[in-house]
UniProtKB/TrEMBL annotation:
Domain HTH merR-type stretches: 17-85
Protein name listed in UniProt: Helix-turn-helix domain-containing protein
Species: Streptomyces goshikiensis
Keyword Acyltransferase: no
PROSITE patterns registered for this protein in UniProt: HTH_MERR_2 (PS50937)
Length: 115
């Protein structure tokens, strides 16, 4: 692996670059919060060779959204479920948009305007 390959990982949203302590500090939360959302199944951090949790930038974005909801008074289990559903909806919308581009078909707004 070259130095350029290692540096490129810093831009990879899925690369587990952050320790639990660093992730908690970046989110302004506790390590216990990160453990709790892991126990509920919202995120599953990778483990280092020494068994320490490591988080990616994508996981930190998901955790930040859960923290927003919890800070607004949503129970942690509910907040995690909401974030999972939001993520699934975003992915479905992305797949639908790709399908429409590939097939040249109109989206829902275009279909009603054409009728």
């Amino acid at each position: 692996m070259t130095a350029d390959d290692s540096f490129g990982r810093l831009y990879d949203d899925d690369y587990p670059a952050y320790t639990m302590g660093r992730a908690a500090a970046m989110l302004g939360t506790t390590q216990g919060f990160l453990r709790a959302i892991g126990e509920v199944g919202l995120i599953t951090p990778l483990r280092s060779a020494g068994g320490h949790r490591r988080y990616s930038r994508y996981q930190l974005r998901i955790a930040a959204r859960a923290r927003e909801l919890v800070d607004q008074g949503t129970p942690i289990e509910s907040a995690c479920r909401i974030v999972i559903l939001e993520d699934q909806l975003e992915e479905a919308q992305r797949v639908n948009a790709e399908y429409r581009r590939a097939t040249g078909s109109a989206g829902p707004a275009d279909a009603t305007a054409a009728a």
